[in-house]
Fold this protein.
Amino acid sequence: MRATYIWVMEPKKKPIGIRQVGAKFEARLAFGTKRKSLGQFATMEEALAAYASAKEAARSRYPSKRRDVITQARLKALFTYDPESGLFTRLSHAGGQPAGLIAGSSNYQGYRHLKVDGRRYLEHQMAWLYMTGSLVLGLDHIDGNRANNRFANLRLASHAENQQNRAAKSNNSSGLMGVNWHAASGKFQARIMIDHKSHHLGYFSNPADAHQAYLAAKKQLHRFQPVPRDL
């Protein structure tokens, strides 16, 4: 069976290899000069989720020196952080920016970041480092607002847990989380993601009934976020 490569761009233009094999998508993660298969999935979204989870696990197991450069002491020497507003303020003049100025800016994904000693860091990770002394990758914005870095709005989360706190996509055919129009059956399908895999919950004539099936399953299976944040 012939395989077709599809390249998806991440921030900083680093490609992710997703290989389409027939009707499925294979996710593969690079380890040195080799790529390890993470499995084949029915949708591109599932393949990308598996890739992100594996990448996070690899980073935790093999931390890079670059991520270990910034320390809590260095961060506090350069900025103050207000846990109530979630904002950083400069303590000294740097990079043409005067002391007392709100630091940081937003990227195209809606996350805020700081530039420290020539490197860019995500502000929510810096907020956690400032308050706890730990630099971690897995954090969730409880209200779903990526720019809201109040400390009370942040919590530790694996990638799979983070995915439980998602809102319905703008291109969702039903407008309801966990519900999509299934053309082949002529009904609305209810589905839920568990550990990066999509699970079928049934077909329904009414989108509201399909959504209720999703909510019931979410309450039981999504222990990290059992209720959608928009309810």
Remarks:
- The longest strand covers residues 24-31.
- The radius of gyration is 20 Å.
